[in-house]
Design brief:
alpha+beta, Growth Hormone, Chain: A, seven-stranded mixed beta sheet, six-stranded mixed beta sheet, 22 helices
Length: about 675
């Protein structure tokens, strides 16, 4: 048995690290989302942000003169597995504390595992295993999110058994792997050993690769929301690109190994250009001149699509980068303290970039530094891509390993890696391709249920995850048209989930996402049982957080409705509502809904009701105190300007714990 395990340790490590990298991405996502959730409960910096200090704790291990022993390594690894297994059972505060601890332990585990490498040949093979397992973890993440319609299915509800099963497998493989390693010892520096500075640079770039994968590639829905492109098309294309690269890396490894340093730099440069172009081509140019508003977002162009798919096509360079960096660290063997310093600075860089990424949306709530990050979404990704490529500009190759002769197929089980990656890719393609069609709504309807709902990024009024309860509440209301606010969770700060996709799938509705996430809004969306026609996004002038309004036509029988969904900034600035009224001015049969952030006694309300009807007052002209809300404190509204023969049959506010806003429903009939 021991001989078999020793012979197949590379295969065992591949499966182990495929699961552990997946756990890392999940822990980071849950940790960052939990911090953001506490920020949702107010309009300032939450005290819970102090937990980002977990990213600084790896620096404490710099005091150790010797590397951790293998049994200490085993304990740390098993702790990570246990933390991930128990994560779905915790509330937001618990996930904040425990997931952060898991991320910290991971940053200690990785350099400690590096130090178990016995020799340069082992290090070269380890680099390939490391890179292949990283790709497997990304594919697993994409698969689980595809199965969960935007959410990771292994973290939710009755499907948690998937995560528990993976944790059990990882725990067993970890025990076997550590048992087969040699006890790490301190080592003396030799002439080929990496210097402290180069080791720190490689540590930052290596962890920067994990960051860039976390930004988008573990959840391709994020790229769909950057660009407005079709979800399934992006997911299928990424899976096929990864499958092709896996086959080349697995069965023609010499092609990858023979890429010269200048060739790798060129590949990185092209990827960086494509990534930045994807951001900039989809980001609107916001003028500081109030008279330039409102304006309509640019329509989709072929150039935007070319940049996006070129970026995905070039993205395997991230795995080649990781392979080269791990090989350098493993074969040029820096001292334990230098390696830990590299990971510690990498962890600090990860923290800075995660905060910067979040600031591109919440800049209005960040004193002093916040305004710099407005409209800088593209810059964060540009920096991330440049940092990953930096080692190949500053660290020369030393020629180690050039005499290797196709050892990839000499190692038992190594030919299994590309087949596993191919199988995962094909599973993703099948999952994405089998999206059920939307059932047609009744063509002869004589009524219309309209709902507007601020879903607080899928969290309830206590700051806990509440997207499932929100879906059930919406199902109970059975809307024909649904307007959502604070729906832009397809980014790292909010877990990279896609609430709009999740709701559209769960409700069997057409969906238009509205403003692209690269523009830094808090998100609005329109869902409908009937086809959404001529959808577009308008932007209003904003001093603080950027705001937008969706416009679309929806045909119900012989009636054509012009539907608008909006979410104004704090206190519903009057200049923003004036922009909205300018957008709807010349439209007929208008439904305007959303979180307006202004109440009836305000000037914003007065100028709106001068040209439109408040559906609430049309139904309840004498008031209604029986719905659990104060009519004079309403900020969620449905305003209408209807053709003759259409009337407001009912209007209801439905407060509840599912969100910090009530759902509001209006029923039109004719």
């Amino acid at each position: 048995m021991e001989k078999y395990l020793s012979k197949n340790v590379g295969t065992i490590q591949f499966f182990l690290f495929s699961i552990l990298w997946l756990f890392f991405f999940q822990l980071v996502s849950e940790f960052v989302e939990a911090i953001y959730a506490f920020g949702l409960m107010g309009t300032g910096i939450p005290v819970e942000i102090a937990f980002v200090g977990y990213f600084l704790l790896p620096f404490l291990f710099l005091i150790l003169k010797r590397p951790l022993g293998r049994w200490a390594l085993l304990l740390i690894g098993e702790a990570i597995v246990i933390i991930r297994a128990g994560l779905p059972l915790l509330n937001t505060r618990g996930r904040l504390m425990v997931a952060g601890l898991g991320v910290f332990l991971f940053f200690v585990f990785i350099p400690s595992f590096f130090l178990q490498v016995k020799d340069k040949k082992t290090g070269s093979e380890y680099a390939k295993t490391f890179s292949a397992s990283l790709m497997a973890s990304v594919l697993l993440s994409v698969l689980f999110r595809s199965l969960g319609a935007g959410y990771d299915i292994s973290l939710q509800g009755g499907s948690q058994w998937i995560g528990l099963s993976l944790a059990l497998i990882a725990g067993l493989l970890l025990f076997v792997t550590v048992k087969e390693t040699n006890e790490a010892t301190s080592q003396e520096e030799d002439e080929s050993a990496l210097s402290l500075g180069k080791t720190i640079l490689l540590g930052i770039a290596l962890i920067g690769s994990l960051l860039l994968l976390s930004f988008a590639f573990t959840a391709p829905y994020v790229m769909a929301r950057w660009t407005g492109e079709n979800h399934e098309r992006i997911i299928i294309f990424q899976a096929l690109v990864f499958a092709l690269f896996a086959l080349v890396a697995g069965f023609r490894s010499q092609w990858i190994k023979n890429i010269k340093q200048w060739g790798l730099l060129l590949w990185n440069a092209l990827f960086t250009v494509a990534l930045t172009a994807t951001m900039l081509l989809n980001q609107e140019m916001f003028s500081k001149n109030e008279n330039a508003y409102p304006f309509t977002a640019r329509p989709q162009s072929s150039l935007q699509a070319i940049a996006l798919y070129a970026m995905i096509l070039l993205s395997p360079v991230l795995f080649v980068n990781v392979m080269r960096m791990v090989k350098t660290l493993s074969t040029r063997r820096p001292t334990p303290r230098a390696l830990m310093a590299g990971v510690s600075f990498g962890s600090l860089y990860f923290l800075i970039m995660v905060l910067a990424h979040a600031f591109t949306s919440v800049y209005d709530y960040m004193p002093v530094v916040g305004p710099f990050f407005r409209d800088k979404y593209w810059l964060i990704h540009l920096v991330a891509a440049l940092v990953v490529a930096l080692p190949f500009m500053l660290i020369k190759e030393n020629g180690e390993g050039e005499s290797e002769k196709q050892e990839v197929l000499e190692e038992p089980g190594n030919s299994l890696r590309p087949l596993v990656l191919l199988a995962l890719s094909l599973a993703i393609v099948v999952t994405a391709a089998l999206v059920p069609p939307i059932k047609a709504a009744p063509p002869s309807a004589r009524s219309l249920n309209i709902v507007t709902y601020n879903i607080q990024h899928g969290h309830n009024d206590a700051g806990e995850k509440g997207f499932k309860e929100q879906l059930e509440r919406i199902r109970e209301l059975d809307p024909d048209i649904l307007g959502l606010q604070e729906s832009d969770v397809a980014k790292m700060g909010t877990g990279n989930a896609d609430l709009v996709k999740y709701f559209a799938s769960g409700l069997n509705m057409h969906a238009y996402y509205g403003p692209k996430t690269v523009n830094g809004t808090f998100g609005i969306a329109l869902l409908s049982k009937y086809p959404i026609e001529d959808a577009k996004t308008h932007y209003m002038y904003s001093i603080g957080e950027q705001t937008a309004t969706i416009e679309a036509k929806i045909t119900v029988g012989e009636q054509v409705f012009n539907v608008f969904v909006t979410h104004l900034g704090n206190k519903g600035p009057i200049f923003q509502q004036e922009n909205v009224l300018e957008i709807v001015r010349n439209r007929e049969n208008v439904i305007l809904m959303g979180d307006m952030n202004f109440r009836p006694p305000t000037e914003q309300y007065r100028i709106t009701t001068a040209v439109m009807d408040d559906a609430w007052l049309v139904r309840w002209p004498g008031g209604n105190e029986d719905q659990g809300i104060d009519p004079e404190r309403r900020i969620d509204h449905i305003f209408v300007r209807l053709n003759g023969g259409i009337e407001v049959a009912d209007v209801t506010y439905l407060p509840g714990p599912e969100s910090d806003h009530p759902a509001m429903m209006a029923v039109l009939s004719w």
